[in-house]
Amino acid sequence: MKKFTFLALAVPAFAHWPWIETNGKLHFGVFPHDRMTGARIEGFQKAKLWTLDEKGGYGPVQAKVESDALDLGAAAGYPMSHTYGVYEGHGPATLVLYGAKAFRGGVAKHSPETLPVDIVGTGPGRFRLLRNGKPLAGALISAYTSEQGRHDGEHKHDKSESGELPPGAMKATTGKAGEFSFHLQGPGEWQLHVAVKEPVAGTYEGKRYQSVTLIFTLRFDTR
Fold this sequence. Notes:
- The chain is mainly beta.
- The protein contains 2 helices and 19 strands.
- The chain has one domain.
- The strands form 4 sheets. Strands 5-4-8-9-19-16-13-14 form an 8-stranded mixed sheet.
């Protein structure tokens, strides 16, 4: 595989992505209502999965398969990294890398290892986007609540950028240091979503691809 370039470009609309609830349930589909089942869920057993304990330590976890989720158990946080594979459904083949995190309370300032794409917390409502541990500038971040996802309608979401996102989602673009912020009002549950594409060709498991697509979600509550 060739070396990645750290450049955020426009991304074709991917309608489905993984997200982790703060109760440790990993889903794949359209947040929060459309959840994939069967083999779509079982495929994420191959993902790298961790839990975060109350003392800030990470450890690997063996997930339990449920009808529409992987159950990661009870913990303070849940990072995931998954190479989905080569996808050819939207034009030229692209290698899709998924990532997801969920935290109860504040977002952790570190991860269990260097993830391909990652969001870490830097303060209340403040975050940094990383690509292989380095700041990623120029990426569009969307933020919305679980209530927005439910009330905006199952098929009325914005498909122009990162998939089916609520049209009322807040937007922010990462700066030179990968930093961005949102004004999160009051207690609630939030989901951050980012999708970037890199013009890097290569081969994965015998299949050629012309680009790399990275999709990452972060779920957390504000108390």
